[in-house]
Design a protein that fits this description.
With 208 residues, the chain is an alpha+beta fold. The protein has helices at residues 2-87, 101-106, 157-169, 197-207, and strands spanning 113-124, 138-143, 146-154, 174-182. It has a four-stranded antiparallel β-sheet with strand order 2-3-1-4. The longest helix is centred in the N-terminal third of the chain and has 86 residues, at 2-87. 11% of the residues are buried.
Length: 208
């Protein structure tokens, strides 16, 4: 009887030990599993944050590229407008100025080549008769609500550039444009001289 009781007690202790051992092992396994899951979640969160950062960076560069493309389109549009302006330049004209005739006849070789003009940036529209008859080489091109001004005929680009700088120093926006090619048979053309200064000053009044 005592033997049976002892065996029963031992069996109970064995089962309890096995149960508690299994419980401890299960808890340890669960802790390890939770730790592994936490590490995996942390790793996935880091990757997600990286993806979000890359997405934000990609969106930023997409916006930058869109701005660059917009700027390129704007520049292209401006260039197209400038090409249209150059394409719409007036037909070549021969102006007669008697006091220059002898000089031109003596320097006929200068008349073969490109003639340059100075274009003053578009300015608000003014009555055309304000300049009528004052400056033979002064031309007005209507352009919507604006007027574009072409000044002078220059056989030397450097001389045209000097006049352009003179205008810029006084606040006007001006640049040199290539004009028509002059044939040697066209011998009477007005050359820019210092008397043009008062007329250019009048232009500045309307263009600055």
């Amino acid at each position: 009887m005592i033997y049976k009781t002892l065996l029963s007690t031992l069996f109970i202790f064995y089962n309890c030990g096995f149960f508690f051992g299994h419980l401890v092992w299960s808890q340890a396994l669960e802790a390890e599993t939770r730790q592994a899951l936490a590490l995996e979640i942390r790793y996935m969160q880091q990757n997600l944050n990286r993806l979000k950062a890359w997405k934000a960076q990609a969106q930023y560069w997409d916006a930058q590229l869109a701005q660059v493309q917009k700027r390129v389109d704007s520049i292209q549009h401006q260039l197209d407008q400038e090409l249209d302006i150059l394409a719409d330049l007036e037909q070549e004209e021969v102006y007669l100025e008697k006091q220059k005739r002898q000089f031109l006849l003596q320097n006929r070789n200068q008349l073969e080549g490109v003639v340059f003009r100075i274009q003053v940036q578009a300015a608000p529209r003014h009555p055309a008769d304000r300049f009528a008859g004052r400056f033979p080489t002064f031309t007005v091109f209507p352009d919507g609500g604006l007027r574009r001004y072409l000044v002078g005929h220059f056989f030397d680009y450097r001389e045209a550039k000097q006049w352009t700088e003179w205008l810029k120093q006084r606040g006007a926006t001006a640049y040199v444009v290539g004009f028509k090619k002059i044939k040697s048979c066209r011998s009477f053309i007005i050359l820019p001289t210092l008397p043009f200064l008062p007329v250019l000053k009048k232009i500045l009044i309307f263009c600055v």
